[in-house]
Amino acid sequence: MKFLDKRLDRRIAAYQQELIETHYREVENMYRQMRGWRHDFRNHIQLLAAYAQKGDLEAVKSYLAELEQDLARVEPTVKTGNAMADAILNSKISLAKAKGIPVRADAHIPVKLSISDLDLCVILGNLFDNAIEASQKLREEERMIRIYMDMKGSQLYISFTNLAAGGKQKKVGGRFSSTKGEGHGFGLARIDSVVERLGGYLTRASEEGAFTTEVLLPQEPV
Description:
54% of the residues lie in helices and 19% in strands. It has helices spanning 2-39, 41-53, 57-74, 83-98, 117-135, 182-197; strands spanning 103-107, 145-152, 155-163, 171-172, 175-176, 201-207, 210-218. Strands 1-2-3-7-6 form a 5-stranded mixed beta sheet. The chain has a two-stranded antiparallel sheet with strand order 4-5. β6 and β7 (210-218) form a beta hairpin. It starts with a helix and ends with a strand.
């Protein structure tokens, strides 16, 4: 029994490390794009100054419009008030958009959370990965992920909804079955484990054309 426990502990530790490294790479890529934009800022200003000196206001307007579109691609989409949540959500939104999946996010965390960054990373990262994987089975025009986060009294409420193919999903052994194999199922189990350890509540609902996961996490004063 001890051998099995140690084996499971090693597996969980390896999974957590892999998850953190994955999110780190995604966040680093997002900030690399932002640093690149800032690096080019002086060149943009010089070119705008040249247009202005020549009195070419149409060129100034056109170039400013291009810069605005370019900046929108690297500027954080979501600003929750929590640094870790911002990093995870924005990196995943960028990933989803690259895969042709629109994301609607309404996320607010107006208080300092008592849960660890690692636990938040496990929950949000896996929820988003699951939604992206399910969305990729749909035609691009049918894809959509909706995210809502806010405080409900003293609890953090998290809701992820993605449009899904194949109609209403069925539960196997009290859980919705996974289509990605053992690794994916382990991710779902990790969400359940973290929520249970934190004394939270989790529900998954499958309706025709949509799959929703809702999480409530009690927050102690910090």
